[in-house]
Structures are given as structure tokens and as C-alpha cells.
Amino acid sequence: MKPSGIQLVQAGSQQRRIVIVGATSAIAEHCTRLWIRHGAADLILIGRNDKRLRRVADDLAVRSPASHIECLSVDFTDGAAIERAVATACTGGRPDIVLIAHGALPDQAVCQADLRACQDALTVNGVSPALFVEAFVSHMHNAGPASLVLIGSVAGDRGRQSNYVYGAAKGLLDRYAQGLRHRLALGGSALKVILVKPGPTATPMTAHLAAQGQPLAPVEAVARTIVSGVAQGRAVIYAPGKWRTIMLVIRCLPSIIFHRLKI
Amino acid sequence: MIPVRSWGRLSAGAHHVIPLHDPARVPHELQTHGPGIAYGNGRSYGDECLNPGGVLWHTARLDRLSYWNPDTGVLTCEAGVLLQDIQRRWAPQGWMLPVTPGTQLVTVGGAIANDVHGKNHHALGSFGDHVLRLWLARSNGELIECSPTQQPQWFAATVGGMGLTGVIVRAELQLRRVAGPWLDTETIPYGSLDEFFALADGSEADWEHTVGWIDCLAGSASSGMRGIFMRANPSAAIRGPMSQTKERYMPFTPPVSLVNRLTLKPFNAAYYYLQRRRAGRALQHYEPFSYPLDGLLEWNRMYGPQGFYQYQSVVPPHARLDATHVMLREIARSGEGSFLAVLKTFGQRSARGLLSFPRPGTTLALDFPNRGERTLRLFDRLDAIVLEAGGTLYPAKDARMPRRMFEAGYPRLHEFLPMRDAGMSSAMSRRLLGS
Fold first, then answer.
1. In 3-state terms, what secondary structure has residue B33?
2. CA geometry: angle at B411 spanning B408 and B412, to 5°?
3. At what angle are helices A115-122 and A164-186 packed, to 10 degrees?
4. In this complex, how many residue pairs, one in chain A and one in chain B, have their CB atoms less than 8 Å apart?
């Protein structure tokens, strides 16, 4: 079954170019659905698993038959492969939006006991997205206005005993985005680097948290917050917005109190 | 384990909820966990989608559209897609689902598993009549592809099969051509059951949608009763009123039911007079006509923390006048009352599923706030009337019918049982099938 919507569009079309890294992640998928609802786009979906990418691409093609969709599978831990994938994604023209959304919520206890698991978690959640950003910036920094959107996490705002491996990796992205914004501002670039910090969201990645009864935000609502924040060009987007206040309090707690909390 | 409710909010038992997100992995998930039951958008009213203490396979993330043929109107999608997604995506382009229930906030899988019907049942049949093919995951790891002609026994058991033949992962649906999203509607007040049936029968040939609202309390006050009959046809109009897109929420659960003895009579009277003022013909968008309650999300909270029951029966054509009359009198006498009383004739159509609810006759749907024993005692008396008339109840709405009533109303149950998946179990299946 070949979806009717996947077709080539003629060169020089005025459609927005959108690149999604980690396109099978639930948050990314819902952001993409919202973006194509506003109008057809040239989409490049980057992921690890070709079959799963295909499913997402088929869905998007049915939703937006006028969109042109390409899939690219890549090893997220290989810097050279990332460089090639990003170069391929940018050959057809400068992207208007890049969303870097891949990640995997590790088990903190396993990371503490097994350093290979710890290394994998730090790599896939921190190093790999940072390499993607760096590669995209080199292709995009001196072109016109565009948005480079990174999915971080509220977990990156302050290290906590329950998930500091994931938090540290996401915190890395926070510093990386900060530094890039500094560099781009000095260079007079119109490229915006946007860091999204979702709170716990109902996605396949957090299924075990849902099973433990932890309240999770619906992924559709998180995606709506992200898409409208990107349209407004905000540097940091908390999704849902209440996490801005919650994390402000958590960041400001003095250690003497913080260290007594089992969070 | 997390608390999960169905639409009636009668219970909030703890469930082990397993989200399904990859159709290819569903058979494996069913093999590893369970027994359990599929849970889509939680719109069935009673215990059909619940399995307290056990597993629920949550299908909300099986929400991909897989294939669309713009020439034939055939859509293939995963089972967790909401009917609203389909309607809103394609109605502007002149394609709609042929049959939908009174809410479009149900999943495709749920619509198949209940073989849901709509106001146009007499013309277009039930949801299952427009399913071309479906893919069913079984707890033995199998994935069965079936249609009315390919492995038809699986198809007939799964359409209306209450989720008990396996988990539906994907379906191929036939959409229908429409000129636009509008309906030519007519609203007609009526003053007796005879009048209702005359209107319903007289409209069947020329009107695709027919439905009656009935004030089930007015009968006690005088010899007469009153109601509003609504009928509609797809309109050829290419311009018309748009649907209200702003969603409103019932923001909290009130400590007591807002539907009670004090409010019911004024509610019903207000609704009657409001609708009577709108009597006559009008061009309406399909959303407010077909899904009037979708405009207030979580309206089920208005029944308070005790929740509510829906009692939906069907009685055969020959018994319809007497049985409906006696039921309404019994309700009025009990002092319990229903705000949403809906009366609809099914015409002569039978449905495809072995356990499908729609059948030739008249269906009456009533909502009652849960007032414990006294509500249940009323249902026992209504059951007796329905059974006597040779009728039955709709499992999608049910939370309490006795097993013998189910067995009496579903004569093809013995054909269904061998098709059942032993790995599928719900509170309802244990109540009505013993396991």
C-alpha cells in the first residue's frame, strides 16, 4: 500500500521546510500534525527505525496530501552519521523549522548500577541532540530567519536524586542552547534557538509513570503549547506553562530544604 | 495501577493501564499481559470497558491514519483514531462517515466493538455496515485480517463483539460523498406517542435522520405527553452556519447531581419550549445536530460523584406502542426521571454483528442519576416490561442488566462464544458471560 499523499513537489515550491529529528516521538508527531494543519510543508523525518518512521510518514501524508515527505534513518550515537544526515536534510534548501525531539527516559537505578546504561542515557539524551544542533547551526546560521527547536526537560533545571542522569543530559542542552544564542546574537544571525522544557507528558516514553499513577499532561496540549511558543519565537518554552513557576520554586529552594525532599 | 472510570462514572477501580502505540507489537503485548480489555476513549457508559484490578489496553495512541483513497473514499486507520478526527479532516472536502453515534468522541475500535448506530439507522444501518475490513490482534499472538467475505465469522463476531474477540488494531472504512457539512433539518413538536410513531414512520422513506426527544415527566401531570421530533437530510447547500468550535468544559463535579427531582421538571420544560420555538425547517451544521452534547466536554460530571446510568432498550415493532407507554408511565410513577430521553425507530434493518444491538423495532434511551437501590429497583421493573415485549438492552450503555436478560436478547450468543478470545475479559464479560 503506497500512500497517495507521498509525491514529489516541483523545485522552488514555497512550502515551509520542516525537519523533525526523532520524528516518531509522540511530542514531535503531534507538533508535526499541528504544523501541517496550518498548510502543506516539505517534511524531512529523521529517526532510528525505518518502519516506525514510515508509519508516521503515512499518517502525515493522509493528513496533508500536498505535503512532500521524506524519511531518513540514522544512528543517533554516531557523530559522523549525524553530520551526513543533517547535510542531506539541508541539501534541498534551508529549513524554516528544525525540531530535535529524540530521547529516552532511562531508569535512574539501572544507570547507577551499570555505567554502560548510564553512558547510553547521557549520549542519547544529551550528546546526540547537541551534535544535531551544532550540525544544523552550521547550515543555518547565516541564512534568513528560522527556528531551531530543542526538546529539553524540566528535569534539566535542577539535579534531583530520582533522575539526575536524564536531568544532567537535558541540562547539557540548556547550556548548549544558551551558548548558541550568545554566539548567534554576536554574529547577527536571524536563527532562533528555542529550548522546550516539557513536564511529565503522557507518551510511550512515560507509560510506566502513568502506570504508577503519576499525573501526566496530554501530549496534544503539550504540542499546542510548543507550536504556539515557536510561532512567538520564545527562547524557552515550558509545556504546560505552569512548570515555569514550579521549576522556579524548585530551583530557588535552598539545599538545606531541598536535600530533605525525596523528589 | 490507576483509577479508571467509564462514561457513567459509577466506579473508579484501579487498573493496570498499558498504552498501545505500535500496531505491529499489539499481538505481542496481548501475549505478555492480560487477561484484559481494550479501552479507547472511555465513552461506553457502564462496565464494558472496565476490568478493575486487571489490565486495560489503552488504544488512544493507535491514532495513525494509514491510507486514504480520494477517488473511492476508502480510509484505512488505526483503531484509536477518534471519529471527530475523521469528520473534521474530511467533511470540508465532501466526505463523511456514513454512520456515527450521538457523540463523535469515540474511537474507531469502540465504534466497531459496539456496532454503534445513529439517527440515520433506518437508512444506512450501523457502523459495522460501512467497515470494509478489520485487523484483530488475539492474545495467542495472531493477527487476523477479516471482512464480510474474508474469514466472515471473525468479522461477524468482532462487529458488536464488545472487545471480547481480541483487540481491533486497524480498520478500513468506507466514507460517503456529501455536498457539504450541512443538513436540511426540520423540528416538529408532538403531543402523544401515537403522534411520534406516525411522524417516525412517515419520515422513514424521505428523511435520512430521524429522532425524538421526549419529556418523560410530563406524562404524569396530564393524560398527554410531549416531545420534539427532529428529522434531517444531507443538504445540497454549499454555504451555511459554521459549527461552534470553542470547546466548553463542565469544570468540576458538583457534590450532588444537578439532575434531580427539583431541577428535572423545569429542565425538561425549558428544553421543550426552547425547541418548540425553533420548530420548522432550518439549515444546520452536522455537529450541533448530530452531537449536541459534544459542545460541553465532560458533561457527565453534572450527575455528581455518584455517577449515572443510561438505560437503553429496544422493543420489536409490534410491541412498541404498549411497551414504550408502560415504560414511560412506570418512570413517571417512580418519581425518578430522565433528562435525556431519546426515542428512535430502527426501521426494518438488522445488523451484521452476532451481538449487534440494532434490530427492527424502537429504541428508548434514558439517563438516570445513580440513587442506589431505588434506581436499580426501577430498572428491574423496566427490565420486566422490555423482556415481556421481547426486547433487550444495549451493552454499550449497560452497567447492571441480569445475565438471563442478556441471553434472552442475544439469540446468536452461542455462535459468538467459540470466537471469543480467552485473553479478553471485562467486568461486563464476567457479569454477562460468566468469565
1. coil
2. 145
3. 30
4. 54
Please report the pLDDT score of residue A10 as a whole number.
41
Residue B332 has pLDDT above 90, yes or no: no
Q: Residues A71-111: pLDDT tens digits?
A: 999 999 999 999 999 999 999 899 999 999 999 999 999 99
Helix, strand, coil shares of chain B, percent, nearest 5, are 35, 25, 40
Domain that holds residue A68: 16-258
Is the Cβ–Cβ distance between A196 and A98 less than 8 Å? no
Q: What is the CA radius of gyration of chain A?
A: 18
Instruction: Give the residue extent of every domain in chain B.
Output: 65-178
Measure B6 CA to nearest chain A CA, in Å. 17
- The DSSP 8-state label assigned to residue A186 in this structure reads H
User: How far apart are the CA of A39 and the nearest CA of chain B, in angstroms?
Assistant: 13
Interface test with A, best of B16, B21, B41 (most A CBs within 10 A): B21
| Contact with chain B for residue A4, Cβ under 8 A | yes
Distance of CA A74 to the CA centre of its chain: 16
- Across B162-169, average pLDDT: 98
The total number of structural domains in chain A stands at 1
On whether residue A229 sits in a domain, the answer given is: yes
- Residue A231 CB neighbours (<10 A): 12
pLDDT at residue A27 tops 90: yes
Which residue from B17, B24, B89 is facing A210, i.e. has the nearest CB? B17
User: How high is the pLDDT of residue A5?
Assistant: 39
Interatomic CA distance for residues B5 and A262, integer angstroms: 30
Residue A174: CB atoms within 10 A of its CB come to 17
Mean pLDDT of chain B, nearest integer: 94
Contact A204 B89 (CB under 8 A): no
Q: What confidence tens digit (pLDDT) does each residue in B42-70 have?
A: 999 999 999 999 999 999 999 999 999 99
Contacts of A45 in chain B (CB under 8 A): none
Whole-number pLDDT of residue B115: 98
**Residue A147 belongs to a domain with what CATH number?**
3.40.50.720
Residues of B in contact with A65 (CB under 8 A): 68, 70
* Smallest Cα distance from A200 to chain B, Å: 16
CB nearest B61 (choices: A1, A204, A212)? A204
Chain Cα centroid distance, residue B251? 24
The partner residue sitting opposite A211, judged by closest CB among B16, B64, B69, is B16
Cβ contact B65–A55 (<8 Å)? no
Mean pLDDT for A252-262 is 92
The shortest CB-CB distance from B65 to any of A59, A204, A212 is to A59
- The nearest CA of chain A is from the CA of B399 a distance in Å of 25
Q: Do A210 and B89 touch (CB under 8 A)?
A: no
The verdict on residue A6 lying in a domain is no
In a domain, A10, yes or no: no
The model carries a pTM of 0.90
- Measure CA A70 to chain center: 18
CATH topology of domain B65-178: 3.30.465
Instruction: Please judge whether B65 and A207 are an interchain contact, meaning their C-beta atoms are less than 8 angstroms apart.
Output: no
Q: Return the higher-pLDDT residue of B317 and A144.
A: B317
Mean pLDDT throughout B258-269? 86
The nearest CA of chain B is from the CA of A50 a distance in Å of: 13
Question: With 60 as the cut, is the pLDDT of residue A114 above it?
Answer: yes
